[in-house]
Amino acid sequence: MKSEMISQMMEVARGCGQIIRKASEERIGADIKSSFRDLVTKYDVQVQNYAIGQLSERFPGAGFIGEESGEYEQAESALTFVIDPIDGTANFVHHYQHSCTSIGCIRDGKPLAAVVYDPFLDEMFRAEKGQGAYLNDRRLRMEDLPLSEGLVLFGSAPYNPELTEETFRNLRSLFGKCQDVRQSGSAALDLCYVAAGRAALFFESILSVWDYAAGALIVEEAGGRCTAFGGNTLVFDRPVKSSVLAGTPASVAESGLL
Ligand code: LIP
User: Fold this and answer.
1) Span 12-42, pLDDT tens digits
2) Domain 4-140, what architecture?
3) Residues annotated as catalytic (active site), given as ranges
4) For the chain, which residues make up each domain, given as ranges?
5) Exposed (0-12), middle (13-18) or buried (19+): which is 225, by Cβ within 10 Å?
6) C-alpha gyration radius of the chain
7) Closest residue by CA, ligand 1 atom 15
8) Which fold has domain 147-254?
9) Which of 27, 40, 207, 256 is 20 to 30 A from 99, alpha carbon to alpha carbon?
């Protein structure tokens, strides 16, 4: 049984996905943010404005943290929505159809509800605290696979070249323990793929809160673990950056990143 809150969030995420799908049929120009790899398009801003407009109407007084405009005026509200309008922007720019909208809902500093929508595969991942995780209408229950029985997903921290050495050192070590490695370019979808049992582990040396706020809850509600490297607790209610490690309990334990 879906709550009214998650139903509303799913409707907004699906609307974001329609903008992404339509835009993906056109040539997509991009501007540069922090580096030549850190791209933003007019659609990132358009989707984020749509999401905030819709969520403000449906949840009056809510606060927002969004990738394309830092921290909004944090209304005196119990709810904060953490939004990555297009996670996998580089994929989107290059018509490499693997991007999503990620919306996490935070209350008292902790994830309450989450939706991640991939408009290309029409896959809606969702979770509510204590209510389980779902892919479309299928309940996700993670088998506690060891690394030797699964894939490892990773992000290359492309905006932070100072972390390249660490990333590929960790990758080399994990490659020796798992069936194979994959890089998708969307951390939010990587976290959902772990929750869906498509991979045993995901890691990235640095991500922004909007990349992981929704996926972290989806992993945990599917029976997995999601922390920062070293097992440190993730922060959800401020525009911070953190390493992220997520996977089956067994894979996280043997990852060498705790
Ligand atoms: C991206 C992440 C990806 C990571 C990139 C970037 P964006 O998010 O999903 O995993 O490697 O550094 O953070 O910028 O496309 O929303």
Assistant:
1) 999 999 999 999 998 888 888 788 788 778 8
2) 2-Layer Sandwich (3.30)
3) 67, 84, 86-87, 89, 211
4) 4-140, 147-254
5) buried
6) 17
7) 88
8) D-Maltodextrin-Binding Protein; domain 2 (3.40.190)
9) 256
